Each structure stands twice: as structure tokens, then as C-alpha cells.
Amino acid sequence: MFIKNNQWMNSFETITGKTHMKIKMPNQDAVMSEVIDKDFLISAIADGHGSKKCTRSHLGALYAVESAIEVAKNIKEDFIKDDVIHTKSIGKYYTKRVIALWRKKIDDHLEREPLELDLLEDLTLKEIKSIKKNPYVSYGSTLLVVMLIKDYILCYQLGDGDILFVSKSNSVTKPIKRDDRHIANDTSSLCLSRPEKEFKIKVFRDLNHILQMILLSTDGYSNSFSSEAGFFKVGSDLVEMISEDGFNVIDENLKEWIEETSNNGSGDDTSVSILTRIDKKDELETASS
Asked: pLDDT tens for residues 13-33?
């Protein structure tokens, strides 16, 4: 999938990992991006937990990215006022509304299709009680969001996954560091009682336009590399590739690349969203394509 506004181009894809294909399990990831207006582009990815308690987490991931974008569209005028970022709007005001909409989507789905816990296998009595107490557990998911609003870059992260920044000088950094609490399969989740407290939020002012590319991915991508250095190199390699061949090469090959990476690595569902700044070369190429 490909979208662009007046500053950024974005290609995004999701694939089902071979481990889930073997057991005929649906893709637990979701990715969605939207141009809200010429100065506002948002991209969101989510990773449903896929555990035996989280039987509907593929829907939870879908509802998460939908909610992130719908709320941003509804409150877009609140983010920036007089060219100054409105910190209250980007904090709990936004995250609380995303969580509320996510829960509403789940409530609507539960009304149409109630959980039949007696039909679920391998669940302990304790696990069944926990789902009855909090049915959102069945839809548990992470959520990562990047908003590009004029000269501001807003990053949100709940749970595992990665956001990479690549500068024009090909320096690769993580604006949000990995949470040390995320060990093995443990991660923060939208299904917690107060998930808004778990969001990590970073805001950057990119006045000098030194940032060239942003990469969002679920953990199936980074887990396919033997080291963080190998994962970071993807960011710098992509920037060099775009510089030589234009952004079209990314859009045309992204799905095949992440399928190959996942198949040779984690085997997990994998979602990637690549946002790169438009330069004159890209403007010419997209105009002629």
C-alpha cells in the first residue's frame, strides 16, 4: 500500500508468518496509514497477542489501528494551535480516546458474537475467570503510532515493536527505547485495566528536516535479525536504496522483502510501515508513474 502528502511518502504491508500459516491461524498483526490532510499523515501498527487466552486478538489489532486513526482525524485541530503543539491533546487526551474507541468496537463485536468460553480448549479455570472479568483480554494487542504534523513528529508506543529514525546522514536511532519489562512474550497491552498509563510518548520538532526516514514494525521483524545492529542496518540500507533508485523500489518490493525476512527469521506475522521524506527526485518519479 502507498500513500503520500506534501512532505512524506509511506509504504506499508503486513504478512502472515509461516508458523501461523502451518496451524491456519489468522494474521495477528494490523497496519494502517492515512493522509488526514496535506500537513498530517498518520501510520499505525498493532500486534495481537495470539495466545490461547487472546482468541480474538487479530480483531483487537485491527480495531487498534482503526481507533488510532479515527481519533486522530476527529481531534486533528486540537494537536497544533498557532503552530505550537498542544501537549495535553497529544498525551492522555488522545490515548484515552483511542482506548475508549477500541473498547467500543470490541463491545459492539461482543454483542454480535458473544464469547463462548466453554468451547475454548486448554484454558484453566483461572484463565476463564479472568476473561469473564475482563473480556478485552481476548482481543489483547500492542499499538505503535507515528504522526507527522507539519514540522512535528509524534511517536506513541504501547507494548513491543520498534520505531526507527534514520537521518539524512544515515544515522539510525530509536526514539523510544525497548521496555526492559518486555521479556520473552510479556508485553504491555491495550487490554490492561488502565493502558493509557503504559503508553510511551515522544514529540520531536524537525525544523531542519534532518530526519529522512521512519520505520515502524511489529516485533516479528526485529526478531528476525540476530542482532540489533543487523536490524538497524536495514534502516540505513533502505535510505541508500531510496537515494539511488527512488521510493518506488520500496513500494514495489516491501511485501516480498518482509515475507523473506520473516520466513528466514522469526517465522512470525510481520508488519512494516516505511515513511520517507519527499525530495525532488521522488516528486518527479511519482509524478511520472
From this structure: 999 999 999 999 999 999 999
* Beta strand spans in 58-161 (E): 80-81, 84-85, 143-149, 152-158
Report strand pairing: 172-173 vs 162-167: antiparallel
Rounded distance, CA 219 to CA 141, Å?
A: 12
Residue 45 three-state SS: strand
CATH architecture of 2-288: 4-Layer Sandwich (3.60)
Position 206, amino acid = D
Which H/E stretch holds residue 192?
none
Q: What is the pLDDT of residues 196-224, one digit of tens each?
A: 999 999 999 987 889 999 999 999 999 99
Amino acid, res. 261: T
Edge-to-edge strand ranges of the sheet holding 8-15: 2-4, 8-15, 270-277, 211-217, 162-167, 172-173
Give the whole-angstrom CA distance, residue 109 versus residue 138.
12
Q: For position 238, what pLDDT does the model report?
A: 95
Nearest CA among 158, 213, 229, 153 for reference residue 190: 158
Task: Please give the grid coordinates belonging to residue 128.
Answer: 476463564
In DSSP notation, 218-232 reads: -HHHHTTSSSHHHHH
In the numeric block, the cell 487526551 is attached to 93
C-alpha atoms less than 13 angstroms from C-alpha of 43 in its C-beta half-sphere: 27
Phi and psi at residue 104, to the nearest 5°: -65, -40
For residue 73, which of 145, 167, 179 has the smallest C-alpha distance? 145
Looking at residue 197, the DSSP 8-state letter turns out to be: G
| 180 DSSP 8-state letter | T
